## 1
Amino acid sequence: MSGTETMTWREYLSTDTITSGRQATAQRLYWGTRSFFSSPLAVFGLVVILLLAIMAIFAPWIATHDPLVQNLARDLEPPSAQNWLGTDEFGRDIFSRIVHGSRISLYIVMLVSVIVAPIGLVIGMTAGYFGGWTDRVLMRITDIFLSFPSLILALAFAAALGPGIENAVIAIALTAWPPIARLARAETLTTRAADYIAAARVSGAGAPRILWRHILPICIPSVVVRITLNMAGIMLTAAGLGFLGLGAQPPSPEWGAMTSAGRRFMIDSWWVVTMPGMAILIVALAFNLFGDGLRDLLDPRQSR
Amino acid sequence: MTDPILSVKNLNVRYFSARGLLHAVRNVSFDLGREKVAIIGESGSGKSTVGRALVRLLPDIAKVNADRLSFEGKELLSLSERKMQDIRGRRISMILQDPKFSLNPVMSVGEQVSEAYLAHFKVSRAEAKKRAIEQLASVQIRDPEHVYGLYPHEVSGGMGQRIMIAMMLIPDPAMIIADEPTSALDVTVRAQVLSLLDDLVQRRGIGLLFISHDLNLVQSFCDRVLIMYAGQVVEELRASELHLAQHDYTKGLLASLPRIGQRRDRLSVLNRKQDWARDLERQP
Amino acid sequence: MSLISISDIDLHLGAGTRSRQILDGISFDVDEGQTFGLVGESGSGKSTVLRCIAGLYRHWTGSIAVDGDTFESADRLAWCRKVQMVFQDPYGSLHPKHRISDILAEPLQIHRFGDIDRRIGEALEQVGLGGQFRYRYPHQLSGGQRQRVAIARALVLRPRILLLDEPTSALDVSIQAEILNLFKDLREELNLTYVLVSHDLAVIDHMCSAFAVMQAGKIVEVLTRDALDAGQVSAPYTRALLEASGHYDLAAPPSAQS
């Protein structure tokens, strides 16, 4: 980086004499990150999510066994040196199954978020900015989706489309966008009246430009926070569908399906149901804590 | 002057934050009797911080200390939070800039005034309502029975501010801290609110601490003026003698004001000097 | 011929039974190079007049013409290049997530101006800010500096008219003096015409050669500065404003109204 050799990194990040756009961005990131890392719970959430990501990426190397190979000679073994978290009713290694299952959970969570964010933003911002009939029609549609409990709606869709991960993703996405749209609409309504929007209009900016360049950057932080907080719910819904047999199908190691299969052996072999259950609990908690930390960072208005 | 209601000696407020220490108020000393004293200064001068420090309403990161901060003979800084709450509600009242943010939007203004009355006196609701209506009448609201039932969004800014004052007066305070009480109001309404405050000082003998940025207003309304710059009181004057100010900052402020009938091509601009912000000598 | 010619503007806001008349028969003319003032209290409609001229409200009736072109017949972008606006609250009129350079570049991009970098530097220079402000975010600036950026944004399109909506009422008096001086300098330098809205008669008196007093959506009277200084005020409302502005009369407390 030119011109910074004479300056230490600390000076570069703290000085008030900003000489480039890159430096301005770097300063923003630096001070934001610092405040994020001052919250231990948020850092815990981030660490768990990173571990989960590493686990998903390197699953074949981390897992000690093949998650699908049955070994009926060693069924329902308690945790031991050979099977760290025990084995299930078919003698499959639970640790390896959880490791591989993280891929499915992350896949569902990511796919749903990627589908839901743009849909919610487009519908919410359009309704909020144009108002009138556009607003009324779009919000009534949103209300219809909102009025069903999300698991029930997802159940209905999964039942209609047939069981499977992709259908579970579609079902969850259909239930997850309305809150995002409501949030984006509310942000747009408050932003729309701001003087900087009026100033942009006086400069000759049209609606697409105002929505994209002025309103979107205001909506994004709260939407990102909301989606992160929703991730736990998405994962739980996916696990719930799996548990009810409408999500991932056996023998794939989805955590919800694993918990469901293990519940028959709960009394004698507690680990079969407890281990994937704990995995769900820890990751859901991590997403929530990370989301809270992110809110303090991106959206100071809503933080406590 | 008889015993002052409030006596402040070497008040200091420091803020501690991740990016360092900010010494927001430095060695501020003054007495307030049954009179109107103004603290004047620009944004960031520490004038509002002084007002909030007196009633201990600053956030936790602020450290307040003073050689003396006595109100009616009590040392405010050494009181427990419970005792302080009592004083805050009963003996010292605070009027803030915008009544819109101080009134509860889902409760009629009259009920809010009677709630304030009930909080301090053990009387029946009917009695409280009667007193609230009297109180509204005493701040020169015509038809107080009608106004009693209105909601905050239904009253104008000037009336909202008078209702706030009515609420503040119920416990019969000895001192009012008014932080920019009229800057959200139109000039013609402003005069009404000021005459009300003036009346309180004259008739009830209340001490008024008037925090403002408006030199013209303070000059004609208050008795004494403290001018703050960078957390310090740089000058103290009788309001009527503001034009005799000695400090360059005060003179600069006065010169930068446009005045009706005084044609100038350019307004004079304040030339800030480094040594204004330097620590003044502490009076013994 | 006058540069700005406004005649008989009516504006209603809200629909049906909740419709309220905001402006009622507003007419005035402003000559080139003049600063015309609009004074009145909150709710008098003075800022709304500016918003109509700027094209932020479209559903008024009457006629607004600038330089011979009426609002209806003019191209929208061409209108923007003639008329620009500076808002009251420097904290609300700059996008919090845009850098100063982005804020100043936007009008230039919309109007497809070339040489954007040079023009931004020039605009910052004109309002007395150095190049070091270019990459900052609005929250890193003081109120006065932000207002200078807002003025620079209004100037980059080289308009002939600036609409100033209480441009100094959110600022300290010493900063107000600097901004008002800047406006006077820019008017000379760039041959600008201003319409200045303020609630402060002293500011109007300092800046404007003529002004209109507004109350409840109507113009009460149009005065010249000479008439104001000589106290030749005819409307009682103007007299009340004049008496109440700036000082508090201890001797004669005004009769309270509710």
## 2
Amino acid sequence: MELHSDALRLDLPAANKYLNVLGACLNAFIERIEGIAEPRVTAYNIELAVNEIFANIVAHAYGDAPGGRVDVVVMLASDPRRLLIAIRDTGIAFDPTAVAEPDLEDVQINGYGLFLARSLMDDVAYARCADGNTWQLIKHL
Amino acid sequence: MALNTRSIGNVGVLDLHGRFDAHVAPAVIEWYGRLPAPQIVVNLVDVTFIDSSALAALAGGMKRCRQRDGDLRLCALQQPVRVIFELTRMHRAFEIFATEAEAVASFTR
């Protein structure tokens, strides 16, 4: 993803205690975008989707190794207008095909994170790169 | 997030505030272990955000209480946090009440 001059870049420790920082930054970024239908609902849903990917990285990418980081880039693109969010880590590979879709007819305790991200965004893509993992989330606005 | 807990009769009430996310969920799960009785009401009136780890903590507590012939019931959900219950259809698994009084009273029905 080519970085626009007005893109927001966050370099966060891979720890759940920073989920609130990530959420606040996303909300503040989206708040300044004009003309969004149902801005509060849209911001909440994007925050939840990104939260799920970040928490998944915290849980799985670095194991018990300390010092892991998560790089988050948020930017607004045009034609069509959409929010692009890239989330990168340098941890172990993630296998999206190994994640089963939750059984919505049953009471399941875990396994909703990726399902939620995919449900709330227009596109969620994962790629394994040479030095880590990249998630790209897209929401049309 | 600080966990504020109260007892109303034999019902344990958990008041949560602000974000209920993967950072907070372990403290809630730990609280279940100290419960004297398996009747819980989680008051979400001041909760502004719920993620899947928090949902898992609630669902795990519900299962745990039901195994002991009790229940974990929810009350006062704000509109934005309902999305996670609706997408996962967990709103059908929990008993959800508009007010804390209704949720607590439901245990004496």
## 3
Amino acid sequence: MDLKTLTYIVVGLSFALYIAIAIWSRASTTGEFYVAGKGVNPVVNGMATAADWMSAASFISMAGLIAFLGYGGSVYLMGWTGGYCLLAMLLAPYLRKYGKFTVPEFIGDRFYSKTARIVAVICLIFISFTYVAGQMRGVGIVFSRFLEVEILTGLAVGMSIVFIYAVLGGMKGITYTQVAQYCVLIIAYTVPAIFIAFQLTGNPIPQLAFGSTVTGTGDFMLDRLDQVVTELGFLAYTTSNKTTIDIFCITLALMVGTAGLPHVIVRFFTVPKVRDARSSAGWALVFIALLYTTAPAVGAMARLNLTETIQIGAVGDPEGNLAYEDRPDWFGRWETTGLLTFTDKNGDGRIQYYNDANANFAAQAAQYGWAGNELRVDNDIMVLANPEIAQLPNWVIALVAAGGIAAALSTAAGLLLVISSSISHDLLKGTFTPDMTEKQELLAGRAAAAVAILIAGYLGYNPPGFVAQVVAFAFGLAAASLFPVIMMGIFSKKVNREGAIAGMLVGLVFTMGYIMAYKGIFIPVLIENVPANWFLGISPEGIGVVGMLLNFAVAFGVSKVTAEPPAHIQEMVENIRIPQGAGAAVDH
Amino acid sequence: MDKSGAAYWKRNLRLVTISLIIWFVVSYGFGILFVDAMNNITIAGFQLGFWFAQQGSIYVFVALIFVYVANMNKLDREFGVREDD
């Protein structure tokens, strides 16, 4: 059977599974629609959280990013896992105890203010749309690469699938679909990694192969990698050219941002007990860590494989570079997608892959007769082409396609749900039309989900500039706006309405303004985005940390000079700190 | 909050503080601030600072959460605030 047919079958089967689950787990009450009736087992919720969390970017792009950044890629590895410690210890159990449906609802109640609730809704909607547009784009890209259809067709199919299970099933449908999606994506990710690890080092466990010696030599893989890449003028793999303060701030912004992302937080509203919320964060991280500890191994192995495929002999020896006509099959196949391009700049019929941006290496390259780097490699290839590079059977390639789609769909569904619930529950029921019946609210939630899917699809097809800045915008703004107010709402009895609103607005405006000024989003670039111009040397990706500190400082300052929260709010804070007495669970 | 509630909260805060200090040291300490010094130590094929940044800190994060969960479950029982099974 040819690859395309096989891919259609595997992806089709995975879709049939998701739809079957959606029909089985339809939501019939608002409680089921928003928080799956609060009856989800903590391990199951952990798995759903992991799928919700790991996006198309984690699955398709991260390993490739790490492959080219080396140590610099660590910001994503630590940044996108460490936030779960903050969730487990600072937010999840208390929000579960509070026991309602949405994040803005908590902010509105704790700070006894509809304004605070609406500010939170605005933050949530902006963050979530930025994030979801990237997911829809990911769905379109995977479809177009593996199934050779137009991006628009791929998007339409992806949107229909999400529509069926998010609109029908709400949180309950999404939860159980995400469990299935996690299984698909983790198998698709680890199987090729295990084969490549075994081929390269003889050790099948990627996490260990990463520190093993390369088969047939006595060299450790990372030492060898450092050596081959530096000989080609690249930065050593285990170092980075980012400053320490920037690495520090980006990592912190990603961690705090993770803990402040509404679609992640809301997953912990679905478990039966407070202690389940704590352990569920641990399980989520176990399932996430399976992929996140494999990714750096995949990155390093892929970089070594790629470099040694091209640089077959000594650097500088004319025979040391692969002749274009000898290129392997997968090379040719990925050339047709445009993700891999070769231009024979010096006309020698051989491929030179080196760092032509390195001024210190230029003289040496000229001496070798090289006229510039001839190979352009897209980050995404490192995962997408992995099974072919390792010469795995076609069904593994088909599985990778299904895995990429699963990663994108599961994240998109989670995001669409928090968008729709903040509209139907926070804006309509909570603010503008409080007389709605439960049935009407459920209908409004479904309608909002449907509209959100259409907007997300449009943004995915026609991505505006801000969509490419997911890291800066979604994480930076979550870190600077939502995380601090939620945390202060739990850990301080004294932070009041005025403090919370002022803090959120200052964090939001500062962070957004900084990113817009350097990245030229919505407005022209005001300041050139180079390290010399950055505030304290912090890039727009890490600036959320400063926004967060401003949020805390302003909130405490304003709270000091205004009236303290009323007694019943202080009692509410004391009450959420103690597990006993949380709302009852509903059986599934 | 009554007296035992306040004591429970204080114990919880101490646990969180200790956990987050470890959280900070393995990632921001070993993996970022002191990465060069840590890289002078190699175990198997790993420079230790690089290993903490790309592997070790993640393992420690997982362990920290489960240790915290176990300690909190104990604390909940000790103060009689555990939810019914």
## 4
Amino acid sequence: MTFSTKANALWEYANPKKFLATTERVLPFFWASAAACLAVGLIWGFFFTPDDYRQGATVKIIYLHVPAALLAINAWFMMLLTSLIWLIRRHHVSALAARAAAPVGVVMTLIALATGAIWGQPMWGTWWAWDPRLTSFLILFLFYLGYIALWEAIENPDTAADLTSVLCLVGSVFAILSRYAVNFWNQGLHQGASVMRIEAVTGGDTQEKVSNVFFYPLLVCIVGFVLLFVALVLYRTGTEIRARRIRALLARERVGA
Amino acid sequence: MIALLLRDLKLAFRAGGGFGLGLAFFLIVTVMVPFSVGPQSALLSTIAPGVLWLGALLACLLSLDRLLALDWEDGSLDLLATAPLPLEAVVTIKALAHWITTGLPLVLAAPVLGVLLNLPVAGFSWLVVSLLVGTPALSVIGTFGAALTVGLKRGGLLLSLLVLPLYVPTLIFGAEAARRGAVGMDTGTPMLMLAGITAATVALLPFASAAVLRVNLR
């Protein structure tokens, strides 16, 4: 029983009016809490944690790098989910949310790539290496670009929503495939050693590798980034809804005149 | 279905351009490589499998925007969509026609270009086999991209942007199989993965292509 009422409650937000009314009320809280979390997490992380004994102060870029990387991937998953909802239930808000999330996702990917390069330079002595993890992020970036470009290229909004949704589904499959292909490809190029070193430094086994001193501020930063992402997506979705309304009004006016 | 295939093949042969153009492009890209990296034969033979795969992929990409656009412009795509043949079959046939007119000639030309790039003797058979197995996937994925962008004015560049990331796994496994063959390593895993990608894309992607084509024809 509770499940069905809950589910219904969620689908109510498929109504743009209800969506706008609710997001307008909750958005200030999201902005405020995101700002608070980021301020606390970043200041704590940058100024009140010790330098790593091996990496020195460069370790602190982790507070930007890891949350951005996390969101870069999860933004795509969110787009996948909303695309599916659009294809199955035809809720316009869902398609617009996918559209709204894409630029945020691409910026997160860029932040992850850029901070990774800045971190990699002192650590590995190179800005870029064709490591599987780095390479798959670059491929993810390309997928985002294609997705956004397709949205921009198509005039009819429903056609655009349909086509980009299918692209998102197919792209997800190929993105995962690329991840495995890239893993295989790099192992094939040079064996082990460098990968082991990279594995120890980046993502993945963060929880085991990063000591608690770094982990708690990192957690706060991740929460802050997630809140920021939610706020941005809700805000941008609202903008998309309003933009579409304006277009509809203009079209009606033209027909009337 | 066979009538449609024959029609597409005839059009490709007689209209000119599309058929020979891919091959010529493949030749030119391959010839340009020594100019850009230098003529040392050791270097060329190392990069030959990868360069030939990339050249074949780009040549394949080049002919994609004509794949559905011509039929779209003259309205025959609408007729095909309303014909009793399911649209999934239509796009499969289109992909097959594209492969026969573009992929297959590339496969056949690759060994000749391999000579130009000083490909090791052991690599020739693996290059041909990997291209033979991999190019159908390129055609099918390309058909999906062409179906996505068919209604667009400036679809060509967007098509490349959409299709190239989708080509990544095929390229990785295909080039890896050719490379391993050239240096005498075991090619089992990449060949199997390449065959798997081809089989899966041929089986599944026509449904996605037909779905987006329906949206575009709406």
